[in-house]
Amino acid sequence: MTYSLADDSLALGGRTFRSRLFIGTGKYSSFTLMREALEASGAEVVTVAVRRVNLSDRSKESLLDYIDRDRFTILPNTAGCYTAEEAIRAANLGREAGLSDWVKLEVIGDEKTLFPDTEALLAATRVLVRDGFVVLPYTNDDPIVARKLQDAGAAAVMPLGAPIGSGMGIQNRANIRIILETVSVPVIIDAGVGTASDATIAMELGCHAVLMNTGIAGADDPVAMAAAMKRAVEAGRLAYKAGRIPKRLYATASSPLQGISR
Amino acid sequence: MIWPRSSRYYCVVKDHLTLVINGENRTLPAVSNVLEMLSQLGIAPDRIAVELNGRIVRRRDWAVTAVSDRDKVEIVQFVGGG
Question: What is the CATH code of the structural domain delimited by A9-242?
Answer without folding.
Answer: 3.20.20.70
